[in-house]
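For the sake of transparency, this paper describes our internal protein records without simplification. An entry from our holdings is shown next, in its original layout:
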Amino acid sequence: MNKIANLIRSNETKISVVGLGYVGLPIALEFAKKFSVIGLDISEPRIEMMRNKIDPSRELESSDFDGADIYFTADPTELQKSKFIIITVPTPVDKNKQPDFTPLIAASTTVGKNLTKDSIVIYESTVYPGATEEICVPILEKESGLKVGADFKIGYSPERINPGDKEHTLTKVTKIVSGMDEETLEEIAEIYEEIITVGVYRASNIKVAEAAKVIENVQRDLNIALMNELSVIFDKVGISTREVLDAAGTKWNFLKFSPGLVGGHCIGVDPYYLTYKAESLGYTPEIILAGRRLNDYMAKHVAVNTVKKLGHFHKVATESKVLVMGMTFKENVSDLRNSKVIDIVKELKDFGVDVDVTDAFTSQDEIKDFYGLDSVDYTKSDKKYDAIILAVSHEPYTKLTAEDFASMTTKNPIIIDVKGILNHNELTENGFTVWGL
C-alpha cells in the first residue's frame, strides 16, 4: 500500500476535486462514499445548490448525495487539507477555434497557491499531448514555490463522463490513469481503483493518456462527419440515409454511426486541441479539420433545406413560422452550452423566417438568459407552424404522433426530423412532408 492512499484511508488527509460540473461532481460524490472529500467550485450559488443536494447540471438525483462525506466550498484554502487533488475544469475553444486554457490556468493557479508538500495533483481536463507538463506544471511550481518530482507529483486521468447516459456511468467505464513516474502511477491507480468497479488502465506516461482521451472524440467526430457527408450525397440522390445505413448495418463489421449535429463540450471541441498541437509542430491535419468543417456546416444544411421545403409549397420564408424543438447540445440533458441548434435558428432568422424555440429539458428562463430568445410551451399554445424542426431527440419528443404534430401545424405541414427518430411512414400517410439527415 502506498503512502497517500494510506493517509486517505485513515482520514489523515482528504481528496479534493476542483471544478464541480458534470465531470467533477460525480467523481467527488463517488469518492465521498468511501473517503473524506473537499468539493471546490468558484460559484457560490452552485455550492449552495450542492449543499442542498441539487446537481446544477441536473445529471444526478438528490439521493446520489446521501451518505457522502463531502464538504462543498468556494474557499480555495480548504485545499491545504488535501494531498490528492483532482482538477476537472472545462477546456473550451475560443471564437477562432483555438484552445482556451483560461479555466485550466485559473485552476492551476488556485491549486498552486494552496499546494502542500508531498501532494499529488491529477488533471482530468481534455488537453493536447504535453499540455499538463508544459502549461500546468510551471504554474503549480511558480505559485507553490515547490518543485515537481521533489516536492509534489502530477498525474493525468482523462474524464469519460457521457452526459445523459445512465448506462455508461463513472464506475462502469474503464479509467485511464497515468503518472509522472512509476510510483506516482501506482499511487493514482490504487486510489481510483477504490471507485472504478471495472478497473483502471495504466498508461505508460502522461502524454499517452492525454492523447488517448483526445483521439476518442476525434474518432467519433470523423465518423459522424462521414455520415453527414453521406447524408448530403444521398439527399441529392433522392434516397433515405436511414434506410441505407440500416441496410449496410447488416454486415457484422459495419460501424453504426448516424448523421447529426455535433456540439457539446467534447466531440465538437477536443479535435481542435489536437490540431492546434499538430500545427504548432509544423503539420496540418487535413482529415481532422475537414471533418470539423463538415460537421459545423450541418446546421446551415438543415436550415437551407427547411427553407427549400417551404418553397415547394409556395410558402415564402419571410411569411413562414417554424418551431424548433430542442435547444440543448444533445438529447435528455439540460445543458445549452455549445449546442449547434442555435446555428439553425440563426440561419433561419437570416432567411427572414419567424422562429419559435422550445425545449423539454431546459426552462424558458434558461433559454432567455443564455440565448436571449423567448421560448414557447407548445403544449399550451394554439399557434400553428408551417414547419417543425425536431432538432434534439429528447425522450418526450420521440412519443409525439402524427396527431400531435397536426395540432401544431398549418396546411401542407413540414417535419424536419434531424436525427431520424420519428415514424416517417406514419407522418407521410397523414399528409406531412418529412425530411431529415
Summary: The chain has a mean pLDDT of 95. Residues 424 and 434 are 7 Å apart (CA to CA).
